[in-house]
Specification:
By secondary structure, the protein is an alpha+beta fold. It has 23 helices and 29 strands. Among the domains are: 122 residues, PAS domain (Beta-Lactamase, 2-Layer Sandwich), CATH 3.30.450; 129 residues, PHY domain (Beta-Lactamase), CATH 3.30.450; 77 residues; 146 residues, 2-Layer Sandwich (Heat Shock Protein 90), CATH 3.30.565.10.
Length: 752
């Protein structure tokens, strides 16, 4: 690709504004030069295609040449000294004088490293800048003193735009603040009277795409002196060392995205400068400067503005945290009362909901629910209990941090739209996720009117070729939108109050757990013994069993002619007994492991589960000539697919095994229940079970027949099925008529 190719703007379409790699534009703005150097010899590997304009030297005359092709040795030594600094940022700018055609040109050099490359950017210097810097330093000092005495975010922002406008001379200066959805709002605006005010207007997140926000987070300042510039290509396109396009993430000359250029043109802006405002290492907002004609600022003034942005970040963060101080004190008082009430009650939840103030007052919510040990406690206006249970399952899957909160629940959980009048906003924390113990707060929908700077929905237009084209809005006039399915947002102090309550609840629960400490010690000892037994059974016991089994076979093979029939029978019996004992150990191990494996819960189509079980048992079904009947399609339920499949495997296998009828059949189905989960069943016309054995059959290794009758077995299948069902919070039972058949029923969660 030649230099001309790289300067051709990318087509602005529906995709590349948010996915465009704007840190790899392959070009720079035209007011400066870029040189990419290899250290330590400072060989020029790449340069911008405008060196002839500034130095009267073509890129071909500079590439692969040492930097002393441009700079005198004294300047080279000074640059090398600067490169020894730990932070190159503190050395910028470096003053360079370059001779071209018997004329000395003065430049500001700005250096940084990226991917083991040294990047040197040169901008024409202002000769009078030294005196100007002290003037602007004085203005910055005055600005900081004013900011420090401001008491609110609004006051800080208003002072900031006025002072930055004085320092820079831009036509318009705004403070632009991001919300949780990355939309922005202008919270301060200083401008001439003839320009329309943007104060209070919202702007959609796509106005500043995600790649741009990431670069604003890395760089404090971004200057575009002339939006009508022609991009200058970097040659060669790929760096010879990395064989990749040059990463310009930290470049001051980086070329501007065509999408942003079009946006500036639509606003009537020719020059712009953005200064990042950070809070807790996240992009909080921008100081946005606009000018209607080209405007270049020397690096020292930009540096002063960058310093002002850093100081503003500290001030705004502190002011924002100090706002609502009276409300925060009130929340602290409510928290103390709740801790007192919880400590006085046997059931700490009663302390949260039975007194004044209560759980609702802590975060200014209209409804709340507590899920603890499988029970639900509610206060205020909440969704129906069944809706809360479904919401809880979604929360269990999506709560990754200590707390989750949103003021637009239907956007992330569409089922919430049906109860938007009570729960368009949600805040929830877990104090025992494994036990699904949660505290939830709800806020109702609040219909709001948002003032946008232009219609944010007008993104697309059809060009003359009939293609869909992303067009940054041409109109920035007031456009009102009615916003639904949102509650009032949760304040940071309310989120912090919820987290403090979480810590207090955990403390109460832990104190309660101390009362059961001795029982836990005994339980731990039992578990350790069970683990030890499992180890012995799997390693120490099975090894001698295999030895006995093998040596019995050796005796039959080697001494079969010597032993009489009685001796041979005893050896064969010994082999059968060792095999049975190994089967019993395997069943016991499998049973003990069930409680230690986490359930993999998901929405599961039971039809596919049963089909797989029937496929696995197909040979036995055909051999026994069993007719399988499934009266209607089975439902989809929330469960562990593999373990529920094992339940069906055991029940169907038993139905096949314990059947002495000439025409055998098995029916698999479920029973609907209006207020409870579906009841699954496996029915057969087999031998049946006497009622006195209904409980005993679920005990491990309990068989009602001899070891060789009805195909043998260990008697662990029903015990394993019961364990799996109970882990799903369900139950299993049998109804049977002896001699006529049995029906095994089970659910996968408790009834309401």
């Amino acid at each position: 690709m030649n230099a001309k190719d790289i300067t051709t703007p990318l087509p602005v379409n529906l995709i590349n504004c948010d996915l465009e790699p704007i840190h790899l534009p392959g070009s720079i703005q035209a007011h400066g030069i870029i040189l990419v150097l290899k250290e330590p010899e400072l060989t020029i590997l790449q340069c911008s295609n405008n060196t002839r304009h500034f130095f009267n030297l073509s890129p071909e005359e500079l590439l692969n040449q040492p930097l002393n092709k441009l700079l005198e040795s004294e300047q080279i030594h000074f640059l090398q000294d600067c490169l020894l600094q730990e932070d190159l940022q503190f050395t910028n700018p470096i003053e360079f004088t370059i001779k071209s055609d018997n004329e000395y040109l003065h430049f500001d050099g700005i250096i940084h490293r990226n991917n083991q490359l040294l990047i040197l950017e040169l901008e024409p210097a202002f000769l009078e800048k030294s005196n100007a810097f002290f003037k602007f330093y004085h203005l910055v000092k005055i600005a900081i003193s004013k900011l420090q005495v401001a008491s609110t975010v609004t006051e800080v922002s208003q002072i900031l735009v006025k002072e930055v406008k004085k320092i820079t001379g831009f036509d318009r200066v705004m403070v632009y603040r991001f919300d949780d959805d990355s939309n922005g709002i202008v919270i301060a605006d200083d401008k001439p009277e003839y320009l329309a005010s943007y104060l209070g207007l919202h702007y959609p997140a796509f106005d500043i795409p995600q790649p741009a926000r990431e670069l604003f987070s890395q760089n404090w300042l971004r200057l575009i002196p002339d939006a009508n510039y022609q991009p200058v290509a970097i040659v060669p396109v790929n760096n010879p060392l990395t064989e990749q396009p040059l990463d310009l993430s930290r470049s001051v000359l980086r070329s501007v995205s065509p999408c942003h250029i079009e946006y500036l043109h639509n606003m009537g802006v020719t020059a712009s400068m953005s200064i990042s405002i950070m809070k807790n290492k996240k992009l909080w907002g921008l100081i946005a400067c606009h000018h209607q004609s080209p405007k270049f600022l020397p690096y020292e003034i930009r540096n002063a503005c960058e310093f002002l942005g850093q100081m503003t970040s500290l001030e705004l963060g502190a002011k924002e945290d100090s706002e609502d101080s009276e409300y925060k004190i009130q929340l602290k008082s409510i928290h103390s009362k709740l801790v007192e009430y919880m400590s006085a009650e046997t059931n700490f939840i009663q302390g949260l909901i039975d007194y004044q103030p209560n759980l609702l007052d802590l975060v200014n919510a209209q409804g709340a629910a507590v899920s603890f040990e499988g029970e639900y406690f509610t206060i205020g206006n909440t969704p129906e209990k069944q809706d809360i249970k479904h919401l809880m399952e979604w929360i269990h899957q999506n709560l990754q941090e200590e707390i989750l909160y949103t003021n637009a629940l239907p956007q992330v959980y569409p089922k919430a739209e049906k109860f938007r009048d009570v729960a368009s906003g949600l805040m929830v924390f877990s104090f025992s996720k494994t036990q699904k113990n949660y505290v939830l707060w709800f806020r109702p929908e609040v219909v709001q009117t948002v003032n946008w700077g232009g219609d944010p929905s007008k993104l697309m237009e059809v060009n003359e070729n009939g293609d869909l084209h992303l067009s940054p809005r041409k109109s920035f006039e007031l456009w009102k939108e009615t916003v639904r399915l949102k509650s009032l947002p949760w304040k940071s102090c309310e989120v912090n109050a919820a987290l403090e309550l979480r810590s207090a609840i955990i403390g109460v629960v832990l104190r309660k757990a101390d009362e059961l400490a001795q029982l836990n010690i005994e339980l731990e000892r039992s578990n350790n013994e069970l683990d030890a037994f499992a180890y012995i059974a799997s390693h120490d016991l099975k090894e001698p069993l295999r030895g006995i089994h093998n040596y019995s076979n050796f005796l039959i093979e080697d001494y079969g002619e010597i032993l009489n029939d009685e001796g041979m029978d005893k050896l064969r019996t010994l082999i059968r007994l060792t095999q049975r004992m190994e089967d019993l150990i395997d069943s016991l191990l499998h049973f003990s492991r069930l409680g230690r494996v986490d359930l993999s819960m998901q929405q599961t189509n039971i039809n596919s589960v049963v089909t797989r079980s029937l496929d696995l048992l197909n040979a036995r079904i055909e051999e026994m000539h069993v007719e399988i009947c499934i009266p209607r399609p089975l439902p989809t339920v929330y469960c562990d697919r593999v373990q529920v499949g094992e339940v069906f495997n055991n029940l169907i296998a038993n139905a096949i095994k314990y059947n002495d009828k000439p025409e055998k059949w098995i029916e698999i189905g479920y029973i609907d229940h209006p207020t409870a989960p579906a009841i699954f069943y496996v029915q057969d016309n087999g031998i049946g079970i006497r009622e006195k054995h209904f409980e005993a059959i679920f005990r491990i290794f309990k068989r009602l027949h001899g070891p060789n009758k009805y195909g043998g077995g260990t008697g662990a299948g029903l015990t394993i099925a019961k364990k799996i069902v109970e882990r799903h919070s369900g139950k299993i039972w049998v109804e049977s008529t002896y001699g006529q058949g049995s029906t095994f029923y089970f659910t996968l969660q408790e009834a309401d």
